[in-house]
Write a structure and sequence with these properties.
Residues 27-66 are annotated as: Disordered. Residues 1-26 form the signal peptide. Residues 48-61 have a biased composition (Basic and acidic residues). By secondary structure, this protein is of the alpha+beta class. Helix content is 26%, strand content 9%. The chain has 14 helices and 12 strands. It has helices at 39-44, 107-132, 165-170, 173-178, 201-206, 253-257, 263-272, 298-301, 349-358, 366-373, 379-389, 413-423, 482-492, 499-509, and strands at residues 5-9, 21-25, 31-34, 46-50, 138-144, 150-153, 232-233, 311-313, 325-327, 392-393, 442-443, 459-460. The strands form 6 sheets. The protein has a two-stranded antiparallel ribbon with strand order 1-4. Strands 2-3 form a two-stranded antiparallel sheet. The longest helix has 26 residues, at 107-132. It starts with a strand and ends with a helix.
């Protein structure tokens, strides 16, 4: 009997431990790791099973073209005299892939087209990055994130030949725009037509299910947060980093937190770690993964309640070409935020949590969500998820006093000078007041004054607590370092800070 194989899906979650093992070293000198067992991957893994029984064999009917839609028999012979012989030849939402160029497009056609185009897409975007930025990271010798990753220092923006920061600072917005000299124009999604969530290589190495076939992450790892990032809980501050160097997942959350979180919080964490069929990660033809997948989880993007720089597109603009790149923000300090979403200004984390599930994870589109697998989560579980999100805390800031101001007995002179700039000439505190360094409002920087792209309108203020651990900066990640960010605001707000004042301000930001 033939030993042909068929593909079947595993139906049960496998218990697995995270046991990363170093296999070899890459050409860049980094350790190469085998991905640890992943329960989510296990449940969707495909396995070959030998065809040993007669009923498993493919027969002539199984392989016939009768199942194709175009070969379906007419319900009435009278249709032959009607327009298009009674057939529906246009687009069908349930049948055709989203953004298909013609009806009856198959997933295989989309896959082959995107795979073939991928090198060219990457090449074009890489040229843009190299034109705008110096991508060779310079690392601080003494400033590190919680778990030891050194921060990148800047600025990284490339200025046109003959242009200096001093000359730019002296120019008006109209002059900068007309000469196209603004060093921080919007950072685009590398493939805006396809769009969607893109994960960095360091995360895909651990969770291969997050690999897309059409696009790869674009920014060097040195400009991203730690992976895995530290995790802090406001209900147990004495524990410090509770991640213990692990990526919190469906595999290990109970082991790590059963003695730390309440049953309600544990249940919320479990749902935050459960993948749902959304975006480019789903079981339909609207996916960007080679094989159908269960989906993505909230904490796939907000790793350990933080971020690793994943990006997407803002859901709040149409037509499609008006959507801008959207950097994943940290959930740290969620308990004290009064509005949620960069544009939507949702007024509770419960509403935000439920809204994203129902509108296809940052697509603002419940129709797309329905096709990919419309998740309906009852309000009880939504509230549990929200409560867990409200447990995520900022990293300790030992140089700040209880009011969030700098304790001058512990600070350097440069940090003290930086706080004075922050509250004074720099005008930072007008939108980022202590102690949490945000004002729970939305502001319009009117960037159309400086660039040839339309402005973004009002965008919510984001907290600056723990800011050194959340690069890149701005809503689209266009500023790779804190130095870039200070340069950006110096131009946009017309501050005209000298270099020493900018350095002082960066020193203060690093201690928040």
């Amino acid at each position: 009997m033939r030993k042909d194989a068929t593909i079947v899906s595993s139906l049960f979650l496998a218990a697995a431990l995270i046991l990363p093992a170093v296999n070899s070293w890459t050409a860049e000198g980094h350790p190469s790791h085998k991905p640890p067992p992943d329960a989510v991957q296990e449940v969707q893994s495909q396995r070959e099973v030998a065809r040993t029984r007669p009923e498993q064999q493919k027969n002539q009917h199984d392989n016939s073209p009768v199942f194709k839609e175009s070969n379906a028999e007419l319900a009435s012979q009278a249709f032959k005299n009607q327009p298009d012989e009674g057939r529906h030849l246009g687009f069908e939402f349930y049948r055709d892939p989203l953004n298909a160029k013609k009806p009856f497009t198959t997933f295989e056609e989309i896959y082959q087209k995107d795979v073939a185009a991928k090198p060219k897409v990457a090449e074009i975007h890489q040229r843009l990055l190299e034109m705008r930025y110096d991508l060779r990271p310079r690392l601080s010798p003494d400033v590190k994130m919680t778990r030891g990753k050194p921060i990148a220092v800047g600025p990284t923006a490339r200025l046109p030949q003959g242009t200096t920061w001093e000359k730019l600072s002296a120019m008006s917005p109209v002059q900068i725009r007309s000469a196209n000299l603004f060093p921080y124009p919007p950072l685009p999604h590398p493939n805006n037509a396809n769009g969607g969530q893109v994960f960095p290589r360091m995360q895909i190495d651990m969770f291969p299910r997050l690999q897309r076939f059409d696009i790869d992450f674009d920014l060097p790892e040195a400009f991203l947060p730690e992976f895995p990032p530290a995790m802090f809980l406001q209900n147990r501050p004495e524990l410090g980093d509770v991640s213990r160097g692990e990526v919190v997942s469906i595999n290990n959350f109970y082991r790590l937190f059963k003695d730390i979180l309440t049953p309600v919080q544990l249940n919320g964490l479990q749902f935050l770690l459960t993948p749902l069929p959304q975006e480019e990660f789903n079981p339909t033809d609207d996916r960007k993964t080679a094989q159908p997948v269960l989906g993505v989880a909230c904490l796939d993007c907000h790793i350990n309640g933080h971020t690793t720089g994943q990006f997407h597109q803002s859901p709040d603009f149409r037509p499609w070409e008006r959507r801008f790149r959207l950097d994943t923000v940290s959930l740290r300090g969620m308990f004290n935020q009064q509005i949620h979403g960069s544009k939507r200004s949702l007024r509770s984390v419960e509403d935000f949590t439920e809204f994203e599930f129902r509108t296809a994870y940052f697509n603002g589109d419940p129709i797309h969500a329905m096709k990919k697998g419309f998740p309906i989560i009852d309000r009880i579980h939504v509230s549990h998820m929200a409560q867990m999100q409200n447990m995520f805390d900022f990293p300790p800031a030992p140089k700040l006093d209880p009011s969030g101001r700098l304790d001058r007995r512990l600070a350097t002179q440069q940090e003290i000078a930086g706080e004075e700039i922050f509250n004074g000439k720099g005008r930072c505190a007008s939108c980022h007041p202590a102690p949490f360094y945000l004002d729970h409002m939305m502001h319009d920087l009117q960037l159309e004054r400086f660039t040839r792209e339309p402005g973004d309108g009002p965008i919510k203020t984001f907290t600056l607590r723990g800011i050194k651990e959340s690069p890149p900066y701005m809503h689209d990640g266009r500023c790779f370092t804190l130095e870039d960010t200070v340069k950006f605001f110096d131009l946009v707000l017309g501050l005209r800070l000298n270099q020493q004042e900018q350095d002082n301000l960066v020193a203060f930001l690093r201690v928040l």
